[in-house]
Amino acid sequence: MKNILIYNDISGLGNCSMVANLPIFTKLGHYCMPIVTASYSCQTGFGNFSLQRNDNVAEFTDRLLANRMPDAIYVGFGNDNGILKALTAIVSGFADKNVYTLVDPIMGDNGALYPVFDKTYLQHMKRLVSHAHCITPNLTEACLLADVDYEELVSHRNEPTFLATCGIIFDDFLIKTGAQSAVITGIECGNLIGNIVLDGTSRHFVTNERVEITYSGTGDVFSSVVLGSILNGHNLLVATQVAANFVEKAARATVCSDRRFGIEFSKVIDLL
Question: Which residue among 92, 115, 216, 232 is least packed, with the fewest CB closer than 10 Å?
């Protein structure tokens, strides 16, 4: 059992963020130490959400660490510049303490930052990921972190070699970001969904059959399985394959067709 210090938001609807982290880490045998960055009435895809941010992330952390130290840190949704700056200071403070840090740099999709963020948030995120052992950006977030032209890149999306092209484009991704390893997730390649695994000087691809509907929470589920599997002794490539297989099975098991309500991963959680 490993102790995981978790930073993420929590949403009343959406089956995502902290609601996904806790059962997956627990199922994989780990002890959860959650600190909520913000509380949402429902995930932002619903539009009519209410929000309460946690301005006391640093204080929560100090009081928690007075009682137990983590073996790993998971960072998800930072919510705003102030919270992300605090998280960067916390994570950098563990640099010499043998604590494995995974950052899911949640900040954009479809080629752009989410409307709630600005370029200042991106700069804070670049500083945060430079302290991470592993990061799990989607294609948009990888482009933002590495200053890659997203529109130019996805203009090749229909080519059979698109995943390989992405691999070449992001060949120096770890150098650009400062992260020790990365999984660039959810790259659509025809009937497949691909992930690029970058670990040191090695580059590998993990592909699965693509499910037509993209559900809320898939990224949270994926990154949780990756970290939980790494802490159980798997290398990054194996952890990525485990996570990709689990997300595919969860998506296929999901009955609700409204993507905003999230992926029904609990139906297949016993596969972990």
Answer: 115
What is the share, in percent, of the chain residues with pLDDT greater than 70? 100
* Cβ-based burial of 172 (10 A; exposed 0-12, middle 13-18, buried ≥19): exposed
pTM of the model: 0.97
Cα 83 to the chain's mean position, in Å? 17
Give the Cβ contact number of residue 112 at 10 Å: 14
Q: How far is CA 185 from CA 5, 37, 146, in A?
A: 23, 23, 15
Cα of first residue to Cα of last residue in the chain, in angstroms, is: 15
pLDDT greater than 90 at residue 213: no
Dig out the tokens for 201 from the structure: 């000087």
- Which neighbouring-strand residues pair with 135? 103, 182
Is the pLDDT higher at 115 or at 77? 77
- For 16, phi then psi, to 5°, come to -135, -175
- The DSSP annotation for 213-227 comes to SPPTTHHHHHHHHHH
Q: Which amino acid is at 258?
A: D
